[in-house]
Amino acid sequence: MKKNNIFWGLVLIMAAGMVLLHSFGLDPGIGVFRLLIGIVLAAILIKSVVSFHVEGICFSAAFFIIMFSQEMGILPVNPLQILLVALLLSVGVNLLLGDKIRKIRRERRESHRGIGQYEQVVDSQDCDRIEVSLKFGSAVKYVESDNFVSGDLSASFGALVVYFDNAIIQNASAELCVDVSFGAMKLYVPKAWKVENNITSNFGGVEERGESKWTESGKQLYLKGNVNFGAVEIYYI
Fold this sequence. Notes:
This protein is an alpha/beta fold. The protein has two domains: 3-111, no CATH class; 118-236, no CATH class. It contains four helices and nine strands, in the order H-H-H-H-E-E-E-E-E-E-E-E-E. Strands 1, 2, 3, 4, 5, 6, 7, 8 and 9 form a nine-stranded parallel sheet that branches. Helix 3 packs antiparallel against helix 4. The longest helix is centred in the middle third of the chain and has 35 residues, at 79-113. The radius of gyration is 23 Å and the shape is elongated. The two termini are 18 Å apart.
């Protein structure tokens, strides 16, 4: 069972218990609706702290203060000012510590997904175009581009894993050329993208894992290239 499911399952069980206590007359002085909202906000805050999500921390705390300022003994607050403070704090912290926060997230993600098994992390600078060529061994690449347009990926006698969850397509679509020979390649793309597979396979295969949540206004990733005696797997995350 995923840890995320366990966490939210416990939150819902706790919420059910609080509603039951309220129905028995054990009223903490807070309405049921506000109580449930408070539990959800507290859960989001805890989850955001654990995952180092600055926006989640700032805005969940802001809404909690807005809803429970009286119970917390805080003077009457202006909701718009509190939300503005949350916005400024989240932007400011990201500007100052954004790189460090992303590094922590990456390390945590690697530990959860077992990426430490790969021999190298490709740390080349990302612009609108990326190029990664792997021959023998294994490697992982995190694409961090604010304007991803195109890329070339190749893997020969090795395993290449590429994450696009921090890549942004500004245009309607982007193009990715892959070349796999006696190797394997895994592509992790956002669920909001639609992947158009135009790869030619010779004694190989291309498989999609998961489901795309693409809409008419979403972005498309066009895949082309060749797979010879290898495999390409596309994961929607």
